[in-house]
Design brief:
The complex is a heterodimer. Chain A is an alpha+beta fold. Chain A contains 8 helices and 11 strands. Chain A has a 4-stranded mixed sheet with strand order 9-1-11-10, covered by helices on one side. A 3-stranded antiparallel sheet of chain A has the order 3-2-4. In chain A, a hairpin with a 4-residue loop joins strand 2 (about 85-95) and strand 3 (about 100-105). Classes of the chains: A alpha+beta, B mainly alpha.
């Protein structure tokens, strides 16, 4: 028998189709429950206006193992080569003649080669570097499209979809903390691991630092490890004369550290 | 035709302007994302996109939940500040699927020296070895348990830990003196260095035992008159004892 082309769906067929589709309606709500299912944590309650983050770095404690730079790359999927870093470790060598030498082979991830014998060392130390999350960020000022911005909790972020890759912010940053992501071709930088912060985790570099040379916390909370760090140490910020108001504080920083 | 007495040309112009403005408004609605400018000159949705990034490091608190039998002794050892994922690598996948993804552990000789190889830039007192000389070829784990890195035997030489000072002293005039000639070292210091500290001399007269005018020491030892030589200062204010030239 020839089938009618525009046969109306019978009530029975309609109900059968509906019952088959029922299990899939849950998918409609998946985007709303995804965070809870994937991470087991509620992040909807996070209120950015209630937070103000900063980082402290104790140079006396840094052993230059480069685990922070390594963990940062693994956490944030920054390619291992070419050599771009969201955070890296610099070795400062100050000679008795007063000259300072700075190097950072592969960000310190593979360790540091032996010192050249011809430098008469006065003092030498490691300095971890990262984006200073300026309260007055030059990179945000220069972005022509509004693709980089300070979020409401003071972390400077990059909008990957909106960035046109003009590199203006990269040359505006006085700390050399930005780079053009070799794969995505957009500006990239340290986000203080923002995706971890909103879930109550520490940034990856702070998590793995074996000597607690990196201290992270709220500026506004008296009980935070950061406030304790700021209370007990003489801290400096890098390039204060530029009025960028960095939120990365260095304890034990030599005058040569810039 | 003349509406409300407005000339035809003005009406035509107004019409053109209306079209241009409408086009601008439509273009703005099309090209500017709806969330742009909600909190500032940026796309508010970008924050959610940053947040959506996948987590790779679970954090040590996640590890404790199951592995407390390892955590408890580690928390009392010298490695108490070292998070599990420093050595074992990012383990967020392991938290989600413990059986499917098992984090590895570095068992070769090359990993521990990243922290413990001697490097003059490291802070004084941080335990360091010269990797080439320290039991070459052996994996670190044959002697040291990374979760409780006590030394397999008590070090006999101070230079095992105080390598930098030992290197300096070795080329100084004090090379032939043992460390304990000047420093009082409790036996406990060799096992728990932080709990029982070694003591250094505190008085001028101590250096005077060898360097005073009337001291009973060899003829080559430089002599000074303790009463007149820098009387207000302690000897080590000017002379670094491990490198005793005054400079």
């Amino acid at each position: 028998m020839k089938k009618k082309k525009s046969a109306p769906l019978s009530r029975r067929d309609f109900l059968i189709i509906c019952s088959k589709a029922l299990p899939f309606t849950g998918l409609l709500f998946f985007p709303f429950t995804a965070n809870r299912l994937l991470f087991g944590q509620e992040i909807d309650e996070y209120d950015p206006t209630q937070h103000d983050y900063a980082m402290g770095i104790d140079i006396h404690k840094c052993i230059g193992c480069g685990r922070c730079a390594d963990a940062c790359k693994k956490e944030n999927n920054v390619p291992k080569e070419p050599y771009y870093f969201r955070t890296w470790v610099e070795r400062y060598i100050i000679s008795t003649e007063g000259e300072s030498y700075v190097d950072s082979p592969n960000g310190g991830i593979d360790g540091f080669p032996d010192l050249k014998g011809d430098i008469d060392i006065l003092r030498t130390f490691f300095v971890p570097k990262l984006c200073n999350q300026c309260a007055n960020p030059p990179c945000v000022q220069v972005c022509p499209v509004g693709a980089t911005f300070a979020s409401r909790d003071g972390v400077v972020l990059v909008d990957e979809k909106y960035c046109v890759g003009c590199r203006y912010c990269i040359q505006a940053c006085p700390y050399g903390a930005r780079f053009l992501h070799p794969v995505k071709k957009v500006a990239d930088k340290c986000t203080f691991c923002y995706h971890r912060l909103v879930r109550g985790l520490l940034p990856a570099c702070v998590e793995v630092c074996p000597t607690q040379a990196r201290i992270f916390g709220e500026v506004g909370l008296r009980s935070s490890p950061l406030r304790r760090f700021l209370r007990f140490n003489d801290v400096v910020v890098l390039k204060p004369a530029l009025n960028t108001k960095p939120k990365v504080y260095y304890a034990g920083a030599d005058g040569e550290v810039r | 035709m003349n509406v409300l007495g407005i000339p035809k040309q003005i009406l035509a112009l107004a019409f053109i302007f209306t079209i241009i403005i409408a086009a601008l408004v439509v273009a703005r609605m099309l090209f500017i994302p709806p969330s742009f400018g909600r909190y500032g000159h940026y796309r508010a949705d970008a924050v959610d996109e940053v947040i959506a990034q996948e987590i790779n490091y679970a954090g040590y608190e996640a590890c404790i939940e199951c592995h407390d039998e390892i955590y408890e002794p580690k928390e009392k050892s010298h490695h108490k500040g070292v998070s599990c994922e420093v050595c074992h690598g990012p383990a967020a996948k392991h938290v989600q699927a413990p059986d499917e993804f098992v984090p590895g552990a570095p068992r070769k000789r090359g990993y521990c020296p990243l922290c413990h190889d001697y490097n003059p830039s490291r802070p004084t007192g941080f335990p360091q070895i010269i990797t080439e000389l320290h039991n070459p070829g052996k994996a670190c784990m044959t002697c040291h348990d990374p979760h409780n890195p006590l030394l397999p035997h008590t070090p006999e030489e101070c230079s095992a830990c105080h390598r930098e000072i030992a290197n300096t002293k070795r080329v100084s005039h004090h090379a032939s003196l043992a460390c304990v000639r000047c420093h009082t070292v409790p036996d406990e210091h060799l096992v728990h260095p932080k709990f029982a500290l070694a003591q250094a001399p505190v008085e001028r007269e101590f250096c005077g035992e060898c360097h005073a005018k009337d001291a009973d020491t060899g003829r080559d030892v430089p002599r000074i008159d303790l009463d007149t030589h820098g009387e207000r200062y302690l000897c080590w204010d000017c002379h670094y004892p491990h490198h005793p030239e005054a400079r």
